[in-house]
């Protein structure tokens, strides 16, 4: 009985295991390269919230308040002068957008477009 079952059993081939390992490594490299950009985006959003809550009313005050937060949090992708500051009725809307290009290997890169404003935080 044992010999009949051994003939029908099959396992993963060496090529199959190798392809699965390559796919896992590619996904891990992608995650390790992209995660810091999203963490940085979260830090920029937190600085935007702090700027909104600071009570700054004029464009210059808002830019300076954001820049102080950016300096403390080591944000270099955007500065106070890059903010989009508009008025929506009596509410001041502070927003930003920027692109982050992440090189993967050789001439292959990922471009991520980040954007947020104080209305949807």
Query: How do the strands of the widest beta sheet line up side by side?
Result: 1-2-3
- Rg measurement, Å: 24 Å
What is the helix content? 40-55%
Series of secondary-structure elements, N-terminal to C-terminal: HHHEEE
Shape: elongated
Number of strands: 3
Q: Main beta sheet: strand number and arrangement? A: 3 strands, antiparallel
Mean pLDDT: 90
- Residue runs with pLDDT of under 50 for 5 or more positions: none
Overall tally of domains: 1
Give the DSSP E fraction (strand runs of 2 or more residues): 15-25%
What count of helical segments does DSSP give?
3
- The termini sit apart by 66 Å
Q: Can you put this structure into words, describing what you see?
A:
This protein has one domain. Strands 1-2-3 form a three-stranded antiparallel sheet, with helices on one face. It is elongated, with a radius of gyration of 24 Å. The longest helix has about 40 residues. The mean pLDDT is about 90. It has three helices and three strands; from the N terminus they run αααβββ. With about 120 residues, the chain is of the alpha+beta class. Helix content is about 50%, strand content about 25%. Strand 2 and strand 3 form a beta hairpin.
């Amino acid at each position: 009985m044992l010999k009949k079952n051994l003939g029908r059993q099959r396992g993963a081939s060496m090529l199959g295991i190798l392809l699965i390992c390559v796919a896992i490594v590619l996904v891990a490299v992608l995650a390790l390269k992209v995660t810091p950009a999203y963490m940085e985006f979260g830090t920029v959003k937190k600085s935007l919230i702090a700027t909104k809550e600071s009570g700054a009313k004029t464009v210059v005050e808002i830019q300076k308040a954001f820049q102080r937060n950016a300096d403390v949090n080591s944000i270099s992708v955007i500065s106070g002068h890059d903010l989009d500051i508009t008025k929506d009725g009596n509410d001041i809307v502070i927003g930003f957008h920027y692109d982050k290009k992440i090189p993967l290997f050789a001439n292959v890169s990922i471009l991520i477009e980040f954007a947020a404003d104080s209305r949807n935080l």
